Amino acid sequence: MIRYFETEKVFHLQTKNTSYILNILPSLHLGNLYYGAKVDEITDYKNLILKNNIEVGSQVIYEEKDKTFNLNTSFLELSTFGKGDFREPMCHFRLNDGSRLTDFKYKSHKILLEKPLLKGLPEVRTKDNETLIITMFDQVNNISIDLYYTVLINEDIIVRRAVIINNSGNDILIEKALSMNLDLNNKDYCLTTFDGAWIKERQLNTQTINPGIIKIDSKKGVSSSDHNPFIILHTNKTTEDSGDCFGFSLIYSGSFECIIERNPFSMIRVQMGINSFDFFWQLKPNEEFITPEVCLSYSNQGFNKLSQSIHNLINNHIIKPDYSGKERPVLFNNWEATMFDFNQRKLLKLAKKAKKLGIELFVLDDGWFGHRNDDTSSLGDWFVNKKKLPLGINKLAQKINDLGLDFGIWVEPEMINYDSLIYKEHPDWAIKHPNFKPSLGRNQLILDLSKEEVVDYLYDVLAKLFSENNIKYCKWDMNRNFSDLYTTGFDSLNQGKLIHSYYLGLYNLLERLTNNFPNILFESCASGGNRFDLGMLYYMPQIWTSDNTDAYSRYLIQSGTYFGYSQSVMGNHVSDIPSAQVIRKTPLETRFNLSAFGLLGYELDITKLTPFETKVIKKQIAYYKTHRKIFQFGDLYQLKNPFKTNALELVVMAKDKSKAILGTFQILQEPSMCYDVFKLPMLDKNKTYKITKREQFFNLDMFGHLIKHALPIRLNSKGLLFHLLKNRYLFKTEEDTVIVKGDILVNNGFIPKQRFIGTGYNESIRLMGDFGSRLYYIEEIKS
């Protein structure tokens, strides 16, 4: 709901649980009075206004008639440079006379019953939520900035964007155009960001906000694994289930920046949008520039409530409606099984085994096109490699379909190799400077998608691939960051447009492909999680979370990702051991248990599974299919995260609280740790629940020489019989089924079987071991 109170000059935006209150200042600048827990719309608004009764020392007074007012100590919604606000500006311009002085004041506003569509950019999808548009005008320079606020009532989200309009008769140069500015009172806030690198994405990092500027950004041309375009501002006492926190999520995939500034008066400024580094945009008379959208969220019930608001935003308003709530298939990807070394016979052998395991979708990864046998050639040549697949993609897909599997394929359309036919024909289509030898990443260059002819070429060649073959899934990869920025498509005054224009081209391409091929499930990938953002999710309803599939590494990666992204968009695969990324061994059951909290896949040579592994994986897939809906779309809670403790604890729960799944994941086995109590405050205390542990199995190899204490027969752990037995025998873990009243689970918790404590073992002992885990299915029992 959006209300305007003329007497007070106040705009009050309300969601189900939050209020966002703006006011028109006497100077006609736009101020922020409040953002937080919902307050009544007839609040005494004057008591939200700061008391200024005397001039603040060493400040620039905005107008002589009011010496108590200056912009530097005001809470503003739009900030520019030159009139006394010495904090970071939201927008910055170079004007026709060479100056950079602008001053935007309130001109008008309108309240719409729906959200106007965004041109050329991904956006929040909604038709029935109100939007406030406030026009701010610089009378001297004749420039307007429209500030958009859309209210998603049920999700507790405020969506912001800005539109800059050049009403003057001269060109202006935009040097900075962020999407939002929010000034808040400091309440000992901390900043949590999600940082990392390749195979180490979205690691939780919390820091105190000290005086000065914190800048989180990417200059890589992608949103990047270095810093995700999602941050949380929170008090130092906020926990998973209590305390204040604000979330900021950018719907954009290119270079971005997020600025958090604390000024000498302990005011906090938050800004987010396109990275202003190496960015400028020439705006001609009567042209407009539209910024990407930012989604703001607030919770006074801790991180879980904040995350659920963002998860609901993603599922209801970001991904394509056709995939909202649509269950995703269990897939097999051949990459770690074969790399580039495959032929049709080998692929069909993998497909036959996949079908026996219960897998539903077979994905052919890199190496099927051009003359590609390694990563040095053929990107851009999207026709089949007849030496590997002489009958072509169509016949291969048909044979896989005949087995009862859907067929998917890998592409990396944004890239090009020197050793490709398309580069020989169109060397000017690559991003590179004519006077420099270009630097490569993974032996490849980037196609210049700021050029319309490049976008059209890619559409045509991919549309042909998708039209001629029965493809149900497409993994869209992107394996390098930008360098050697230059395009022949722009003159010298407009080279700063390249990255943003590239993304306008990419978004145009994705819009056309996904609209014209709605039956293809697209999954975004960028060396794993190098472009994990809401912008890509607008077009592709899931993203490959990380190239790192080691279970312990995934504890951290998935935990960090869950803060800002729903498990329904996260690709998680079970791979072989030792992990190719960190050379670590983790239990097969844990690799599955963690992957189940998202979109399940398998990526290992399944033709070489032992009988033990085959039986266990069949049971895993059957269990996942039975509970797929709740694994993918249940409300997700983190009880413990592995950045702070020796464990990861997750719950996914149905909206009506009738069922849930608890996942407990240990890092290292600790001595003399006997008991656990898993408090489950999200359940209904008025219900009664049955809790059943998933049937899981050990490989006897876990016991080694201790096997004589676990089995009734004596075995030599170094002998042939033991070796044969460990690859076949399913050693069942403890059984655990209890019926518990909801108020006990809510107020005290679920108490599982006793842990192994360093001596003795029987069938009632919960033996976890390093990186051990359990799943518990929780269902309501009707009285």
Q: How many discrete domains?
A: 3
What is the radius of gyration? 28 Å
Question: N-to-C terminal Cα separation, in Å?
Answer: 40 Å
The fold-level CATH name of the largest domain is: Beta-galactosidase, Chain A, domain 5
By DSSP (H or I, 4+ residues per run), the number of helices equals 14
User: Could you tell me the number of beta strands?
Assistant: 38
Second-tier CATH architecture of the largest domain: Distorted Sandwich
- The level of helicity is 10-25%
**CATH first level of the largest domain:** Mainly Beta
Supply the CATH superfamily name of the largest domain.
Answer: alpha-galactosidase from lactobacil brevis
Structural class: alpha+beta
Overall average residue pLDDT: 96
- As a percent range, the share of strand residues is 25-35%
Shape: globular
**Could you name the ranges where pLDDT drops below 50 across 5 or more consecutive residues?**
none
Largest sheet: 10 strands, antiparallel
